[in-house]
Design the sequence.
């Protein structure tokens, strides 16, 4: 269809981790949410990878779930992508998803990423159920039974529905510190091309309303994503959304979602290997070859 596209790219916060008791898409990259089992203020996010692993180990040692992972392919892929970007680095991320570099997949650095991904699996709850919904997993954080979850910021609604406030009972972060890469994806409205003047006027009005600063703020405050415009007043938004707005304004942090870098069939093949690796006893060495084949 020959169409004129109006984009309403509500950017979801990159790979986020969540922490329970206080403490992060789709958006792959997703942010990390943190909830009740993480015994610190939600404003105190791990500043380094070492702090993150330390927090997970302490939560597990307390008898709670360090890392809550949904049992669906989409969320498993999101967690892997977050690990690759924030623990493997942007260069390795781009070589894999962007360049489809088989040598990068065979490298020790990529194997280390797989090892860390598997380590998260070991911090997940025992008796985990493959196919567990994302909302079921998020509930573990909401009810203070788990510490962290990698997920897009849309899950924030589960916390809000439970009467919890970002920055108090839960928080979110996209990587380590204020210069961490920020993974971006979004949604698009496509309107059919037409010569009908009334229809064209209606399309322009729709695009104007959707992209207006007031609409962007009001919608994203409810939905959990962040405005597409850098000129909005985000002061009324919570700390999770404000962090996303700040990150989006820095071009050096912007990183495309893997779906923008890989063809769907290729992306799907990689995801199939990742979910098998997560849910079986496949070793990192055994996973490298089929991941490379998919790429």
Sequence:
């Amino acid at each position: 269809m020959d169409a004129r596209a109006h984009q309403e790219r509500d950017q979801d916060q990159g790979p986020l981790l969540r922490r329970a008791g206080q403490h992060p898409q789709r958006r792959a990259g997703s942010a990390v949410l943190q909830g009740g089992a993480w015994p610190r203020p939600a404003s105190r996010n791990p500043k380094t990878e070492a702090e993150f692993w330390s927090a997970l180990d302490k939560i597990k040692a307390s008898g709670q779930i360090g890392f809550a992972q949904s049992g669906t392919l989409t969320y498993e892929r999101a967690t892997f992508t977050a690990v690759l970007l924030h623990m493997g680095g942007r260069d390795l991320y781009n070589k894999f998803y962007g360049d489809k570099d088989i040598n990068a997949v065979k490298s020790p650095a990529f194997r280390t990423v797989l090892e860390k991904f598997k380590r998260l699996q070991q911090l997940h709850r025992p008796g985990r159920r493959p196919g567990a919904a994302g909302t079921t997993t998020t509930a573990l954080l909401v009810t203070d039974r788990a510490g962290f979850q990698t997920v897009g910021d849309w899950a924030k609604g589960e916390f809000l529905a439970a009467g919890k406030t970002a920055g108090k009972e839960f928080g979110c972060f996209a990587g380590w510190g204020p210069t961490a890469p920020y993974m971006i994806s979004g949604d698009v409205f496509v309107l059919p091309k037409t010569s009908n003047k009334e229809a064209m006027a209606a399309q322009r009005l729709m695009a104007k309303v959707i992209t207006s600063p007031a609409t962007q703020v009001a919608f994203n405050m409810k939905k959990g994503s962040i405005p597409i415009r850098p000129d909005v007043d985000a002061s009324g938004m919570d700390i999770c959304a404000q962090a996303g707005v700040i990150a989006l304004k820095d071009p050096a942090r912007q990183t495309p979602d893997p779906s923008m870098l890989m063809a769907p069939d290729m992306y799907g093949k990689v995801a199939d290997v990742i979910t098998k690796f997560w849910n079986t006893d496949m070793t990192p060495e055994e996973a490298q070859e089929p991941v490379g084949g998919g790429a």
Observations:
- The longest strand covers residues 3-8.
- The chain is about 45% helix and 15% strand.
- The two ends are 30 Å apart (CA to CA).
- The domain at 16-184 is CATH 3.40.190.10 (D-Maltodextrin-Binding Protein; domain 2).
